Amino acid sequence: MAEGIHRIPLPLPMDALKAVNIYVVAGDDGLTLIDGGWAIPVARELLDKSLRSIGYGFGDIKRFLVTHVHRDHYTLATVLGQEYGAEVALGIGEQPALELLHRAGHDGLDESPFLAVLRTAGAAEIADLWEAGHDGELPNPGDWAFPDLWIEGDRQFDVGRRTLDAVHTPGHTPGHYVYADQAEGVLFAGDHVLPTITPSIGFTVPPAEQPLGQFMASLARVRELPDLRILPAHGPVAPSSYERVDELLAHHEERLTQCLTSLRERGSVTSLVVARDLGWTRHERAMDELDVFSQGMAAMETKAHLELLVARGQATEEGHPDGVVFTAVD
What we know:
Blueprint: E1 5-11, E2 19-27, E3 30-34, H1 41-53, E4 61-65, H2 71-84, E5 87-91, H3 95-102, H4 113-120, H5 124-133, E6 149-151, E7 155-159, E8 162-168, E9 177-181, E10 186-190, H6 211-224, E11 229-232, H7 241-266, E12 269-270, H8 271-275, H9 292-311, E13 315-318, E14 325-328
Helix pairs in contact: 4-5, 5-9, 6-7, 7-9
């Protein structure tokens, strides 16, 4: 990517996303990795092989700067950190999610907390299908160890001659961070600014307050930085953070307009009803054409948009046995 910066795409065991990009930043005292990958054997083997191809090994890793807590970014970092003594840093906004994972199977938390979120979105049938497809296996505590360093606020990390600006960008998750190397002109963007897809919003537990509002505010924060080359966690490198941020903001404003139109046409309805009025993926597919997991994601993301309409005074929300019901304000 640049002198001393390497990108290593690691495989993911899912259809929607084929790989997660791990970035290796070389310093005088070792390596800093932006994200770690998913703790599966094939990803670990490829990371080992790739590091060796550029003259390093796992023992050279000094630190993992993890953009957020999702398993394709965090779990291999924690495993290798424990084995090789590398520091793992994570935004403190992810602490509630890790605590919830460690309580799984205890304190009555035998059911995935995402199921409750789906039911509030009016998607009880989808929740039942998610539950039926769950194999009952509990999270491996070794994959979800607490980090060595909680990152709070904005701060800087020195990596050899480089300075990385850690910028808190909540939205995709509450504790998401991006890392800007302004001297090099690059942004390690995690899942906050993706070049070809829009990151999921509302797919986090415990549920965050106004995740879409937070995401759009975080995009505005990134827009205040210099125009940087995007090194994303998924997809190809993109030339301009300004261009992509503007596209993402415009996309969500359009989505908000579509949600409001649906409410005005349908009256008082749940998020699931509105989601079925929208097109999904870049191909504008109908919701019923999506797989069950993606249908659930669509319902939760639509709920995030409707909640922002409420915050803007354009809609109201009210609890109902079938889920939260939203109504457009005249």
